[in-house]
Amino acid sequence: MLRKFFLLLIIFGMTTACSKKFITKNRFADIQYGSTAKEVEAVIGIPDSVIVTMRGNEHAYIERISYGKGNNFQRHYILIYSHGRLVDKQTREIKDETIKGLLD
Q1: Residue 28: pLDDT over 50
Q2: CA distances from 52 to 19, 31, 35, 49, 55 (A)
Q3: Three-state secondary structure of 54-92
Q4: DSSP 8-state class, residue 34
Q5: Class assignment of domain 22-103?
Q6: Given this model, what pLDDT does residue 15 score?
Q7: Res 24 pLDDT > 50
Q8: Count of alpha carbons within 13 Å of 20, Cβ hemisphere only?
Q9: Do residues 80 and 102 lie in contact, with contact meaning Cβ atoms separated by under 8 Å?
């Protein structure tokens, strides 16, 4: 009985972990201008950071990509909202060497 409980617990954990919302290049491309932050969060999840600027609220999402030993980079997706609606989208790629330089 205890084994069945743990097996069900593991299966439940795996299914909830797999359903986590995250950003990818394709999902970012599918985001429509004029969307609200809540609509976007329903698709790609909560942003990694939110910054209030003169232009509006900047919501930043980070995609971390590893391809081989020591070859990593981050893709930053910036969504800018004005008056509650998405008005601009930007991306920036940061390679592993740049990240190491920032940390030193």
Answers
A1: yes
A2: 30, 21, 18, 10, 8
A3: CCCEEEEEEEEEECCCCCEEEEEEEEEEECCEEEEEEEE
A4: T
A5: alpha beta
A6: 47
A7: yes
A8: 9
A9: no
Which residue is it, tokens 């981050």? 74
- The candidate with the shortest Cα–Cα distance to 79, out of 40, 43, 42, is 40
pLDDT of 51 over the 70 cut: yes
d(CA 37, CA 71): 33
Give the mean pLDDT of 20-40.
Answer: 91
Close Cβ partners of 31 (under 8 Å, ≥ 6 residues apart) = 40, 43, 44, 79, 86, 89
Distance of CA 16 to the CA centre of its chain: 17
Token digits for 97?
């060497």
* Angle formed at CA 75 by CA 51 and CA 46, multiple of 5 degrees: 45
Backbone angles phi, psi at 93, to 5 degrees: -110, 135
